Structures are given as C-alpha cells and as structure tokens.
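Provenance

Sequences were taken from public entries as deposited. Structures were produced by running a predictor on each sequence independently, with no templates supplied. The record for Ribonuclease R from Mucilaginibacter pallidiroseus is shown for reference.
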Amino acid sequence: MSKKKKHNSSINQVLTQMVLDIFEQNGNTPLNYKQISSKLNVRDPDARGVILDILKDEAFKGVMKEVTPGKFQLLELKTFVEGKVDLTNDGSAFIVTDDPAENDIYVAPRKLRNALNGDRVKVYVYAKSKGKRQEGEVVEILQRNKMEFTGLVKLSEHYAFFIPDDRKMMHDIFIPLADLNGAKNGIKAVAEITDWPAGAKNPVGRVKHVLGQQGENDTEMNAILAEYGFPLSFPAEVERESEEIPAEISAEEIAKRRDFRDTLTMTIDPYDAKDFDDAISYKKLDNGNYEVGVHIADVAHYIIPDSALDREAYERGTSVYLVDRVIPMLPERLSNGLCSLRPKEDKLCFAAVFELDEKANIINEWFGKTVIHSDRRFTYEEVQDVIETQQGDYTEEILQLNALAYKLRERKFKAGAISFETTEVKFKLDETGKPIGVYVKERKDAHKLIEDFMLLANRKVAEFVSKMGKGKHKYTFVYRAHDSPKPDALANFAQFAARFGYKINTKSDKEIAKSLNYLMEDVEGKKEQNVLTHLAIRSMAKAIYTTKTSSHYGLAFDHYTHFTSPIRRYPDVMVHRLLFHYLNGGQSANADHYEELCKHSSAMEKKAADAERASVKYKQAEYLKDQVGNIFTGIISGVTEWGMYVEIIDNKCEGMIRLRDITDDFYTLDEKNYAIIGQRKKKIYQLGDEVQIRVKNVDLTKKQIDFSLVQND
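Predicted structure for Ribonuclease R:
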C-alpha cells in the first residue's frame, strides 16, 4: 500500500483499469503481476511493483481474490448491459436496466458519451468493489429517446444557440445561421439535433418549427405538445385519405348490420364535446325486461389496416386533452364528422347489446355491427336535470336507465371495486386563453350512468373473447389490466391515513377495497380529500394495455378491455378489429405482434397524461402570476428532500416551499412519515397539514410556482 501512495492517483486509476481489462480480455484466467506486466509491456521494476500493489489493493477491496499465492482472479467480470438513461441534476446518470431485479448502474458525466435522458444505451459495467455502488460507462447509444426539443433561440452575429426547455437536456444546441428557418432572437421554437461531431461539447441542429412569442397561449400549448412528441398537424397524405372516404352509407352496408334506427337512441356528453363516440339505445321488451345497447362509432370500418390513417393513429396512440384544446388522434373529418354520432344522422356502429331484468341481471347479450339514428344529443347537465326534476325529454327512459346503472354500480362495489373520486379542476379562460377563474368539475349521476354502461360493455366484450379457446390456445386480445397494489406502498398509505382517523384493512384484496371505499366516502368534501385520494392512487399499480388475460383490480373485474372510445384511443380500434375478426370465425391473431402494439399504446397514454398535466401546471402558474404576494390557505400535498408541495384550497393550484426558505430551523425529510422535521425545535410539517402561504414567485417558462410560509416571512 505504501508504494502506491507515492504514485500519482490519476495514473494509478488508469493503470488499475488497464489491469482489470487484462483479466477481462483473458477470460478471467488467474494471473500474477509478472504475467500482467508482460501483457501490458511493462518492464520497469518500480512500475511492476505498482501493478502488484494494485492487485493486492483490489483483492482487499473485494474486486478480486488471490486464488493461489501470487495469482489473482476477478470475483466478478465486467459485463455489457442495456438500459435507459435516467439523468440527474448534476449531469451524471443512472442506467435503468430491463431486469427489475438488477440495481441501477451509475455513470459519471464524462462517461456518458453524449447520451441524453431517456436514451437506450449499451453500458460497460465495471467489476463491483465491496460496499460500493455499481458503476459503468456508456459504450454505445442504441436508440435516441428524442431528437427534437422545444426552447428559445438565442442569436449572435455569426451563430445561434438553442436553449432547450427540458431541464434534463444539459446541452444547448448549436444552430448554423442557414438553419434558423426564419427564427428570430428570443423566439420559441422546435429544434432538431442533426449531428454531434466527435469531441464537440454541443450538438448541432436546425430549427424545425417556429412556435411564436414566449408566453402567448398558442405558443405555449403547442410547445407542450411538441415537447411530448405529439405532432401539431396531420400529414397531407393522412388528410387526403380521410377526405377520400365516402360520406354516404350504402344500402349494401346497412343490410350487413343490425338496424337500430327505429329504436330510441341518445348521446350524453359534456356541453362542449365536439365528437360523440358512444350512444345508448333503450327499449322496454314485451317480457318486462329492458334492451340496452351500447353503440360505439365504427372507426375500424373507415380505417384500413396499415393505411396512412392507421399508421398515424397508431403513432399518436390517443387524443390529447390540454386545458384549452383537444389534439385528436384522427383528422377532423373522421373525429367530428363521419365517426361522430351526431343526432338525426344515420351512423355506423359496433355495439354491445344487453337484455337486462329489473335487477340489472344480464339475461342475453349480443355483439355486432349496427346502424343507428340518434334521436337526441343530451349534455350531462340536461340529463342530470331530468334525473333531479323528473321532467323533460325521455324522462321515463332516462330514469329507468339511471335505476339500472345504480344496480350495476352497487354490484361492482360489492364485488370489490374501488371508488376514487378525484377533484378535477377546470379553468375559465378569456378569449386569449388566459385563465381568469378556476372551478371544480362535479361528477353526478348523469356522468355515472354513462360510465356504468360503458364499463358493462368493456367488461362483457373482454369476458366474451376470454372464453374463446383454452390454455395455450386462448385467443389473442387487447386487455386493460390493473394489478393489485404493492404491499409496502399500501402499508405506508394505511399508516398515513390512520393519522386522519381512517383505518385501512390490508388482510385481503376485498377488505382493502372495502376500507378504501369507506375512506373515499368519508373524506368527500373534506380538506384532506385530494391529498388522501392522490396518495391512495399512487399506492396502486398503473393500468396498462396487454394481451395477457390479467384482471382489473381497481374495478374488481376478472377481464376488462377498452371497447368504447375508438375515436380517441387506438387500443379500442384494435379491440374492434379483433372482435369483428373472431365473430366472423377468424383464427387467433399473433400475440407477440399485438403485445408490441399494446406496449406502444401504454407509452403514448402516459405521454398524453404528462402533456395534459404540463398544460394544467402552466395554466396554474399563469393564473397565479398576477397574485404574487397574496396570501392563501393551503394543504401540504407532497414532501421531498428539497421542499414541500402545497395545494391552495380555494383554487387547487400547487406550488413548492423550498426548505432553504424556511429559516427558523434546519429541516430534513422523514420519508416514512411523509413529513419534514426541524432538527432543533422538532417542528413537524406533514402531508395533509393546513398552512398559510404567500405566493413568492412564478416562473412560466419552468411552469413553476414558489410559495413561502407566512409565519416565516
């Protein structure tokens, strides 16, 4: 050890890596210091002595062992693994491998080799030292996560730089003046990386789209879409294909379908809905039972597999609902025209039709293509008014549908479904898109009526296909799966809920669901509702699309799918195609192919949800920008090692109080108890606590709101 100290540490580090490489290159054959010196062409006695010291030192650290006197061998070979880059704030990264049992691999900034956040990379993993974290270096970038970024153009006389909005994009992009595409200094734009020369600190790129002036509503909303990879318009080929689809429904096509045009049919949607993809038909039968049809726009009839329309819908995966706009999965001619179940028009549908008795038991079911003629377009508010006043159009029919929906709902909760009633915040916007007010969207019986019949259709379609074939010969289908909660996450939530006097029974899935439902009922309207609901949801697994016949824990359904929204969800298009194929005697589809489609759909659904949240955060920041200095009452909604999040009770806007700004003590995070604790005075701020806050600062670019504690001002 003494000799090693005499040598420069950085040279030792390089030499150590060279020694370890020799073992790798020789299949980890036991070697002594002379053999290694020979392979490294080291003849100097002092240098050979350093190699011997390195071998002893690495054996002491547990990297290798002395298998026979003087001969050493690595305990663990360096290996190559693949994974995804998760960048940290200091520019280093952790590589998340595909194997959930494997620990993440740390990569220092200088060893990232221009890999960016989210990239899929190949990593050279070093032999692990005892007690140290696994480390490695990127040797190859296998797939870029994204090459396009939103940000600001900064111009000088001879060159331009593009500063990305993405905080995990650590490099500005150099833009040659010839590639500005008309962008001016300070303009917001989308830039694309075109090259990253070896040894260059910054990538080279070009401006792809000019978005507009920073802070303008359209600019910022389009920037959010671009940031999450959603296109701002449809390709010309896709628009052309949609325009070429005939609007007329032929007599030949109607003859292939069950005709519901003389059966009472209605749509029930939000007042500002632009497309109507589901309708309910209702008929009282002679035997006293009720025939209820759930008719869904037959999007798959119009979209030919592997057409430009189909490829575009698949890539998008879903419609995106920002605060002030909808970015549809399909061009307007389809989403608002041909496939929209507008009143007083013949429309093509795919339906699940049920005969129900007075207790909402299913006596018969039928699945197939239909043609409908909607008699009335209702808003939720209109139907709610009929339910409450028992007056208005189709009162008898609506009240009976509501009574049946109640029974379906009751049975669902009795089976163990969980009722998560989250508070949905909506903004009142002026003509420029600026938020001038905030209100909470209420879910009443009219919303639940539609939801219960949609759930029925989704569940029964999934059950119908799941019974086709047995074991390995089960038919391939697209399911919506939701796993049961992780025990640790649920235990932590139960411990926290107990603080508010709520008991969560974790003995069985059914008991968990029952106690969660009691909690959701008790907490409704109370200040802690949002915090507890969001925390409960976070303790649950995430729902995904898959071909595996998994159950849906949250709904307590053994089988569940998405059949009811093909205008806005690509998985529903897949479900329609597969169901129609099987109804016509087709063989089981390729499971591997559909599983890949499911993975993409799940990923796009997450991106859309992230984009929607980003638009809400932007509008919250914009709403509070004119209220800097104002005082509000809030609820602590989250705690981290750098601060605590607070949600204002009145307007549901959320911001952060940074720990460095709480000056009466030194506070640290108590993760287990969802709290931060003062080290000297032991003052505790815990999730769910009510606090008085002042709006300290608003950064629209970062969609960031900073609060300060009033008692700390």
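The chain has six domains: 2-74, 79-143, 148-214, 238-400, 451-613, 627-712.
The chain is about 30% helix and 25% strand.
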